Amino acid sequence: xxxxxxxxxxxxxxxxxxxxxxxxxxxxxxxxxxxxxxxxxxxxxxxxxxxxxxxxxxxxxxxxxxxxxxxxxxxxxxxxxxxxxxxxxxxxxxxxxxxxxxxxxxxxxxxxxxxxxxxxxxxxxxxxxxxxxxxxxxxxxxxxxxxxxxxxxxxxxxxxxxxxxxxxxxxxxxxxxxxxxxxxxxxxxxxxxxxxxxxxxxxxxxxxxxxxxxxxxxxxxxxxxxxxxxxxxxxxxxxxxxxxxxxxxxxxxxxxxxxxxxxxxxxxxxxxxxxxxxxxxxxxxxxxxxxxxxxxxxxxxxxxxxxxxxxxxx
Length: 314
What we know:
Order of helices and strands: HHHHEHEHHEHEEEHEEH
CATH superfamily of the largest domain: Zn-dependent exopeptidases
Distance between the termini: 100 Å
Number of helices: 10
CATH class of the largest domain: Alpha Beta
CATH architecture of the largest domain: 3-Layer(aba) Sandwich
Structural class: alpha/beta
């Protein structure tokens, strides 16, 4: 009996030792992880995620893609789960020259020329695998895609990173005052960057997928539509610009355009900050049911059109 009792006691002792060792290992892991985490400060937002995600994809990339894809397309393929990427756009041929809004060569100007912002920053597209990276497919993301393509063409741009919601909350305004909030940020940006010549307010529509999507040569695009407010005295240059750019979209493919919507009815904003500068436009790219690849395809076309306009070739 005594031998059995001693045997059980030894077993219990070893069991307690094993549990103790296990607890120590787990505690050490947790403490080490917390220590490392507290000393690593990585800010991953829509301003830095392009390079960050491309950098984190190096375990399974195709070397040929480094030279064949721009950073935007590389990201779409490897981080957004789009395995077969083809925008179908190599060059956009335009005509009807007009006077450039930029006196100097835009491709040699280091100062920003284009200001891209979103009066409605949280307007979203269909969410896909990018949600795993805590990236929202919003018009704000679309602004960075557009910036990427414009800068690939040599046009220096800035995207408005300040939160519209913060401006609204600071001033005690509601959502319907978003254009007042974005106006404050526009004025601030122009003050800090006097070189800015072109202002793009990027939105998306709330229409059905069929209404906001087209297919060209087997590739899907998010349709584009310009909105022009007529409730200020000098709206005509804004309207002329929207009509001109829309003509170039139609020249690429008429199914890609949803036209120019003129707003002067009661209840509409009617200005959309377009009194700020004659080269201020509001464009809606797709709707809430479009995915980021379709938006990307359209923005690549749009970037080429903006480029030709700024060079005086549109």
